[in-house]
Amino acid sequence: MSEEERLFQERIDAGVKIEAKDWMPEAYRKTLIRQISQHAHSEIVGQLPEGNWVTRAPTLKRKSILLAKIQDEAGHGLYLYSAAETLGVSRDELLAALHSGKAKYSSIFNYPTLSWADMGAIGWLVDGSAIINQIPLCRCSYGPYSRAMIRVCKEESFHARQGYDIMMSLAKGTPEQKAMAQDALNRWWWPSLMMFGPSDAESVNSAQSTQWRIKLFSNDELRQRMVDQTVPQAEYLGLTIPDPDLKWNAETGHYEFGEIDWAEFHAVLKGNGPCNRERLRTRVKAWEDGEWFREALVAHAEKHAGKKANTKAAA
Amino acid sequence: MSEEERLFQERIDAGVKIEAKDWMPEAYRKTLIRQISQHAHSEIVGQLPEGNWVTRAPTLKRKSILLAKIQDEAGHGLYLYSAAETLGVSRDELLAALHSGKAKYSSIFNYPTLSWADMGAIGWLVDGSAIINQIPLCRCSYGPYSRAMIRVCKEESFHARQGYDIMMSLAKGTPEQKAMAQDALNRWWWPSLMMFGPSDAESVNSAQSTQWRIKLFSNDELRQRMVDQTVPQAEYLGLTIPDPDLKWNAETGHYEFGEIDWAEFHAVLKGNGPCNRERLRTRVKAWEDGEWFREALVAHAEKHAGKKANTKAAA
Amino acid sequence: MDKFAYLLRLGDNALVLSQRLSELCGKGPALEEDMALTNVALDLLGQARMWLTYAGELEGQGRDEDALAYLRDAHDFKNVLLVEQPNGNYAHTLMRQFFFDTWHYFLIGALTQSTDRRIAEIAEKSLKEVTYHLRRSGDLVVRLGDGTETSHRYTQTAADELWMYTGEVFNYDSVDEAMVAVGVAPPAAQLRQQWLDHVSDIFGEATLTMPPADAWMQKGGKQGRHSEHLGYLLAEMQFLQRAYPGAEW
Amino acid sequence: MDKFAYLLRLGDNALVLSQRLSELCGKGPALEEDMALTNVALDLLGQARMWLTYAGELEGQGRDEDALAYLRDAHDFKNVLLVEQPNGNYAHTLMRQFFFDTWHYFLIGALTQSTDRRIAEIAEKSLKEVTYHLRRSGDLVVRLGDGTETSHRYTQTAADELWMYTGEVFNYDSVDEAMVAVGVAPPAAQLRQQWLDHVSDIFGEATLTMPPADAWMQKGGKQGRHSEHLGYLLAEMQFLQRAYPGAEW
């Protein structure tokens, strides 16, 4: 370890935030860029499964709440791209990596939204899991990322509550609505657990990230937290978690749960999820269709700057 | 009048059919091409307003009847293009004239189909008017056209009956359905009367076409026939014709009806109808999107012919 | 019930345009546009809810905002044809918005002076939003019109194609005239002049050619005679309320 | 009610594919294609009606073909994912049809030997139609695959993109197996081999590359877990029955 690296690690161990202008190991920078941009991409792609129901929201109030949520997600994307940009990479470069398939986004968005209840399940389970992942990151070592996470978490907790509220209405509703809610829970439960990533035994690079304080808890710890938090909520809704092996362990004070189907996890990651192709295509199409628009704004700004300069020169 | 022209007119006056191989005046040929191709184009464009409801037909049986009707229309287009082709013009040339906006199709298809009742009204009123226009043409002087008309009329009378049957179901249905039927009648009545063209006083070229027996009755005569036929049918349905001036004249044995809004007629003809742009665009898009397909079939046929020839040469 | 009919027109315009914009969620040409589009959709939806709620109360048949939004068929919708036109390319989306926003801004401004207190209040609440909408869409029209050759062409084409839908809002029928007569709504002539002046200013700055003011204009939406597009929009929007009648969501 | 479930799958496949084809009315690449598309849509619709009518009778709850077609939400539809895929360009439309027709032809052929008399009769009535469908779509795949460079590329792309939806029909679950056990339906292995052989023959003639038989395959449609496309298709198709409950048409 070089002297610089030693000092860097000391600052981290002392709980000092690293800022953009500070020296940092190249691997720390790269890991952060990967992690933050993947998070930003997830916010952007995450607009699509919800956008799929915004035009069909069942009441104007629900439509309004859902629109506001989608707007927040675009906003989160913006903060996060900005945080990544402090590390010396541009938003366009990050988007190019997304569009080429090189960069990842959360695999959960490769599942389809098949009923209105999915808007509830996504808020409750997916945003719920996201918060459990992100709350520790509010204390992570990189300043801009930590500050972005604080803003994001505040809004996400709203979203999770709104999602649970949708589930509540359905669970108290007609038999068809209750069935819709149960079906959504059945489809989103396991993918939500997979959001925390492979089990610790399989997880690569964790040790270094932990040392750098950009990963504060292990995947399995966070996953357990999600299960412990969610099972009683499901019970309150009168819905059944689709896991026959789920049971309360009074000694550990935790719920034990069944084996995750990692083959499915890897298949979706590899591109074989039900919607991988469509999600990416929708984003690429939006980007390509928008090229003339973005170019025009640049051209106009240049002309305008040119005009200003000419006016000055003439004066 | 040349000797040829005199003989030609004598044959027509004697009720002899003119066939493709026969001598004919250039103006006769041109008039027929214009008239037949306009009719063919109308069949093709006429698929679109009905296609607009086929995906939303209210029962599977109605959907099936509507699909069959649309298929018939494509078939009528085929016969009619073939009849036009006997006059020395290709289908592709005729379609090019349609797509460039040079050739016309029936203006009635520039009105939108706004409810299921429009499927009834189109069958009843539009196909009804078309039949009144076309029945005399079964006896017109040009053989291929006359034979095409005989086939077309047989199927059209089916369509008109099916349309009336839809109106009947609606008129006997719920108050909403009856209102739907009345609304459709309100919107389609006047455009259907306009289908017969300008009043005789305004009509150009009629005399020559009449002499050539490719126009057997005047526009106003045919229009009167349509009114006389349709008013009792509307009464039977319990629907009101949207014309306050409509009244029975016991002396003439005809219905008198109000003034047609010829300004609207000319506006739609000029391109200002509610759907002129969309109808033409849909057809042009289908044609352009299909170019690679048509080219491939030609290329395959040429290769195949080439292979056959090669095989023969080798043998 | 002229006032009920007038309120439906206001509510349906905002509702249908909001619906069109919400089709674009996550599909805008830049992240900032995604946010702005969703924001405008949200503002218009909020306004639609206020107009429809008031309309339902005035009608007194127990129809709330959802009953009016979800349980009317196309012929009972009273929005103008402009707002139901498909999104097209982004130049169309923006030009439709700019034409609408210009009228909407002057209308809402005038409605703050309405003799109907509730209408004046709703207009007052909406004024800041529609002011922002107009500034945004006018600004973008200028930047795209005076951007690249391509953006100029797209923008001009969008203007030419949408032009025939811009006259309907000024084409007053007996409902509109009744509202003018009692001071509820502003007269057409005044709004039309404001609209033409503003569009002309922005088009001038945008180096765009303004189509002739006396061009042929389509009509019918305000009376419930729509384009073929509206039926599809409603089939999608209303599906859940239609498929599960009486359910609470 | 395995047989009811099996009949729904047959009926829904035909109904949904017919609906997709009918979206193209008047929009085909040539007049002859317009006619053929409408014809196939019509045949499939007729078959759907027979399957759904039988399903409804077997269920004995008074649901007729229209109740089953118009009053079920997406999760109750049991068609495979292949048939609900959007039309795409015409190469997609045709390739979807060819993949379906090949399976459908061998299936219907086998069903003429079904131990269920009514199923055998319906299959018998459909056999001539599906034979024509297969000849037509196979013939077009050959001509487009071995046409121009462009048509070859489009056709190959369509095959590659739709491939992952072709495995579901052979992926038997307990419903399918129960039907095999009582001789109502043919086993998967036999159909799959016939399918692979025919597709391979046609692709050979078409100079197309056949994607690997062991590629990852999507599933879920038969169990009611569809793609996001089906909901929109149904919202449109079912609008009138949903908006005017109980009306006769």
TrEMBL record, chains C, D:
<dbReference type="InterPro" id="IPR052703">
    <property type="entry name" value="Aromatic_CoA_ox/epox"/>
</dbReference>
<protein>
    <submittedName>
        <fullName>Phenylacetate-CoA oxygenase subunit PaaC</fullName>
        <ecNumber>1.14.13.149</ecNumber>
    </submittedName>
</protein>
<keyword id="KW-0560">Oxidoreductase</keyword>
<dbReference type="GO" id="GO:0097266">
    <property type="term" value="F:phenylacetyl-CoA 1,2-epoxidase activity"/>
</dbReference>
<dbReference type="Pfam" id="PF05138">
    <property type="entry name" value="PaaA_PaaC"/>
</dbReference>
<dbReference type="InterPro" id="IPR007814">
    <property type="entry name" value="PaaA_PaaC"/>
</dbReference>
<dbReference type="InterPro" id="IPR012347">
    <property type="entry name" value="Ferritin-like"/>
</dbReference>
<dbReference type="InterPro" id="IPR011882">
    <property type="entry name" value="PaaC"/>
</dbReference>
<dbReference type="InterPro" id="IPR009078">
    <property type="entry name" value="Ferritin-like_SF"/>
</dbReference>
